[in-house]
Here is the input.
Amino acid sequence: MIRVVLDANLYVSALLKPRSKPAQILQLVYDRKVQLLLSSKILSEVKTVLLYPKLQRLHQRTEEQVYDLLRKLAKIAVLTPGELTLDVVHSDPTDNKYVECAIEGEADFIVSGDRHLTDLKDFRGISILSPTAFLNVLARRGR
Here is the structure.
């Protein structure tokens, strides 16, 4: 099964736009067509971002609903140990957590809309793609 790390912005986009490419990717995770990889650092960032008051007004989920979403994701994901420390995303060091999780979880892809990550293109054989490019790869593979 394809193993993937998703950037926090994809979770936000999926909640705000249920028909978006990030929402399609998240549905593939829920349908267990791709294996989600998460770390505690990623979960923490997703929680923080989804609970920003401005974003919460937009997605209209309560704090409890956000926690339920995070619990559901953690339950179906492979949680990586979070022991690896890398310094590869020089333009935004906070994004290193995605590469670290991908390496620890032996990911095939990191999916992100953040140019700090997508500019890397790949790292140690892990392709870093936009949501559209990732879905195109899956379509070519017949998934």
The longest strand covers residues 3-6. The longest helix spans residues 63-76.
